[in-house]
Amino acid sequence: MYFKSVFKGGKKKNEDFNLDFFYTFNPEGKSVLGFEKSSFVFKENTWNINPDKKNTDKITFDLNTNEFNFSQFKFVSGEQKIEFTGNLKGTEQKILLADFTKVKLQSFLPKIDSLDLKGVLSGHLDFVQSEGNYTPEGSLTVKDFQVNDFKQGNLFVNVKGENSYKKYRVDLSIENKDVKSIAATGALDFSAQRPIIDLNVFLEEFKLDAFSPLGQDVLSSLRGTASEILR
Question: Which of 39, 69, 79, 176 is disulfide-compatible with 87, CB 3.0–4.6 A?
Answer without folding.
Answer: 69
